[in-house]
Amino acid sequence: MGELFAKRTGIGFALKVVGLAVIAWGIIQGFIFIMTFGGVFSNGIGIGSFLYPIFTYSIYGILIIGFGEVIDLLQKIHDQNDPKAQALQSIEDNSVTIANASIPLSIAQEIKDYYSTKNIWADSISPTKTSNIFIIKINGRTEYIELGGLTPKILSEEETTRYFG
């Protein structure tokens, strides 16, 4: 279930959440209907009227979740065919081995302060093999930031490939 709702793209994740909300709304609507008209349909039709909105909204929700998954899969295919995206993915894969190393609090605070001035919340901060460059995940996208100057510097794609090959 965690793999289904991994945040690869913002739109795909949003569609999956909307799909879950649609399914939940169908269940709530079924309970409201049975509570409101439960006595009227005491001859067995009440169960059918309870299950109808649940099944209908579940089908709609599953379709919406499926569209979100299709968007994520298309993004994954695009990333596999894009050499720049492959290079960035290999950098991230290499940094996973380093990710177990802890980041000093002063560095994490400096990065969080930098993004808070832009009203952005950093989802995660990971180290790289280079001691002054960090991988920052923000709203489903990845940025590389270099520390060591007066202010943190977000690296362009060219700079990233120059540092990491």
Structural class call reads alpha+beta
The level of helicity is 55-70%
Report the sheet-strand fraction.
5-15%
Average residue-wise pLDDT: 79
Number of domains: 2
What is the terminal separation in angstroms? Answer: 35 Å
Order of helices and strands: HHHHEEEEH
Shape: elongated
What gyration radius follows from the Cα positions, in whole Å?
A: 23 Å
Sequence stretches where pLDDT stays below 50 over 5 or more residues: none
How many helices?
5
Describe what this molecule looks like in 3D.
- With 165 residues, this protein is an alpha+beta fold.
- It folds into 2 domains: 10-81; 84-164, no CATH class.
- The chain has helices spanning 10-37, 45-81, 83-98, 105-116, 157-164; strands spanning 124-127, 133-138, 141-146, 153-154.
- It has a 4-stranded antiparallel beta sheet with strand order 1-2-3-4, covered by helices on one side.
- A hairpin with a 2-residue loop joins β2 (133-138) and β3.
- α1 (10-37) packs antiparallel against α2 (45-81) and α3 (83-98) packs across α5.
- The model has no long low-confidence stretch (mean pLDDT 79).
